[in-house]
């Protein structure tokens, strides 16, 4: 059996590496990047909209809108190409995988063309150059005047960014802390979890201007010409698209539109956000996040239960390959993190079939919960007294009828409390899909933090919403548990 189990694991490994192999960059000779964009009529821009003034979201007249300097640049590029700009929201860490797997046509998100990134993607010409600043609490202004004063202190930056590497290289005596979003960085700074945050000067200045408790100081970091400034990332082997975008960037720089138009437009939008930072003003964001959270949870509970039942029954199958396959699946899923599974479904399987972020998130949740629920169901089936099946057989019931009418009803009563716990955990697990840009509750929480420059209040609102959902589900499960127990007592 061990040899057969090893074969199934080997097949899984071959499948994974086969998918990864499909992501190899196209050769320059077969470059159709520009033609493909024009043929479909859209230019898909990947961005992480929590980095003002480059890209951020505003709540204007009750509607969510992505704005910023990079968005204006993207609009001009799309106009020059004669196509429509489509903006796809992702976490910053997910942008490069989205580009290499074809989910987006370009990354326009204040990204620096570091040597490490150039190994995997192509970059256009630099479109904007700025220095690096250090954000600190205004109360620490007398203490931290230069980066040398931060020796021994916790200094943070977004993971995977130029600023993260600069801290590592040029502030060796500081305690480097990496975080996944700009909103978390600012929250950590304001709650004194870190002493300073390193950001691009434009973004740091925006935060300092809109939050009176913060101030920005010059970081005096040294950057090489190869990585200074920001550029647009493109998939490897896209020279035609790269050349077309470079022509647009040349025109933008020639007319000084970034300084004279785009940054001023971003500044006006920043004032929209700070005009009303109450959580009631952003209720639409939380309601939208709640809708997606509930949708994913319901699909996960129903789909996961059906898949779990199927896997549990396969574990009892007399057909050995089916039994081994179900065992291998359950062990593999339970042995890998849910976040990795979500990214694999979206970026890996998405290479073969174009799966939207929402559908990918729901598929991953179903596949993950099915594995855990199968073990709960299997344990419940094994807990049913063997005398029940013997009695059913003596009455002439077939194995399938015995399972359907005798074993499974008793199994449901046995496993109901465990099912309830798993369902509640599943609701909280829906927060994981925010990494691929699904606008569920946690994703919206991050947007509200970035827009309002308030860290704790949005977290409190999200906690209350999750608690209410889980409390209501607990009450519902308890109600049906009592009904099941009453029915069993009447039967006895």
Automatic annotation (TrEMBL):
Gene3D superfamilies: MetI-like, Periplasmic binding protein-like II. One of its GO terms (cellular component) is ATP-binding cassette (ABC) transporter complex. This is Polar amino acid ABC transporter inner membrane subunit. Coiled coil: none annotated. It is found in: Cell membrane. GO terms for molecular function: transmembrane transporter activity. The chain crosses the membrane at residues 292-314, 344-367, 455-477. InterPro entries: AA_ABC_transptr_permease_3TM, ArtM/GltK/GlnP/TcyL/YhdX-like, MetI-like, MetI-like_sf, Solute-binding_3/MltF_N. Keywords: Amino-acid transport, Cell membrane, Membrane, Signal, Transmembrane, Transmembrane helix, Transport. Residues 290-474 form the ABC transmembrane type-1 domain. PANTHER family: GLUTAMINE TRANSPORT SYSTEM PERMEASE PROTEIN GLNP, MEMBRANE COMPONENT OF AMINO ACID ABC TRANSPORTER. GO terms for biological process: amino acid transport. It is a multi-pass membrane protein. It comes from the Bacteria. It holds the Pfam family BPD_transp_1. The keyword Secreted does not apply.
């Amino acid at each position: 059996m061990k040899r057969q189990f090893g074969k199934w694991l080997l097949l899984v490994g071959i499948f994974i590496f086969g998918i990864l192999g499909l992501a190899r960059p196209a050769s320059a000779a077969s470059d159709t990047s520009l033609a493909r964009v024009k043929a479909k009529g859209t230019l898909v821009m990947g961005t992480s909209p929590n980095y003002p003034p480059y890209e951020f979201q505003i709540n204007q007249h009750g509607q969510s809108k992505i704005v910023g300097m990079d968005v204006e640049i993207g609009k001009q590029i799309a106009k020059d190409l004669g196509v429509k700009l489509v903006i796809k929201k992702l976490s910053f860490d997910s942008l490069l995988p989205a580009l290499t797997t074809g989910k987006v046509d370009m990354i326009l998100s204040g990204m620096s063309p570091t040597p490490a990134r150039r190994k995997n993607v192509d970059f256009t010409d630099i479109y904007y150059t700025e220095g690096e600043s250090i954000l600190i609490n205004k109360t620490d202004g007398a203490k931290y005047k230069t980066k040398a004063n931060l020796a021994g202190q916790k200094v943070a930056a977004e993971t995977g960014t130029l600023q993260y590497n600069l801290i590592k290289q040029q502030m060796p005596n500081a305690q480097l802390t990496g975080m996944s979003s700009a909103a978390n960085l600012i929250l950590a700074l304001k709650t004194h979890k870190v002493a300073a945050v390193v950001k691009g000067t434009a973004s740091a200045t925006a935060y300092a201007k809109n939050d009176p408790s913060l101030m920005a100081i010059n970081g005096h970091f040294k950057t090489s010409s190869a990585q200074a400034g920001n550029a647009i990332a493109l998939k490897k082997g896209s020279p035609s698209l790269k050349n077309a975008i470079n022509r647009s960037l040349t025109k933008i720089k020639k007319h000084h539109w970034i300084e004279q138009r785009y940054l001023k437009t971003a500044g006006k939008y920043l004032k929209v956000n700070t005009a009303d930072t109450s959580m009631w003003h952003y209720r639409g964001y939380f309601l939208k996040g709640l809708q997606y959270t509930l949708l994913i949870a319901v699909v996960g509970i129903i789909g996961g239960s059906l898949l779990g039942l199927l896997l549990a029954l396969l574990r009892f199958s007399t057909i050995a390959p089916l039994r081994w396959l179900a065992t291998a699946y359950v062990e593999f899923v339970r042995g890998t993190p849910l976040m990795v599974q979500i990214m694999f479904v979206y970026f890996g399987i998405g290479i073969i079939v174009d799966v939207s972020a929402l559908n990918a998130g729901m598929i991953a949740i179903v596949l993950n919960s099915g594995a855990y629920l199968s073990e709960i169901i299997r344990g419940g089936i094994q807990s049913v007294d063997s005398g029940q099946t013997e009695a059913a057989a003596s009455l002439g019931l077939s194995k399938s009828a015995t399972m359907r009418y005798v074993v499974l009803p008793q199994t449901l009563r046995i496993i109901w409390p465990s099912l309830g716990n798993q369902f509640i955990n599943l609701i909280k697990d829906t927060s994981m899909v925010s990494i691929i840009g699904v606008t569920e509750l946690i994703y919206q929480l991050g947007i509200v933090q970035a827009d309002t420059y308030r860290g704790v209040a949005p977290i409190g609102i999200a906690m209350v919403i999750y608690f209410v959902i889980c409390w209501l589900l607990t009450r519902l499960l308890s109600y049906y548990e009592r009904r099941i127990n009453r029915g069993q007592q009447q039967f006895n």
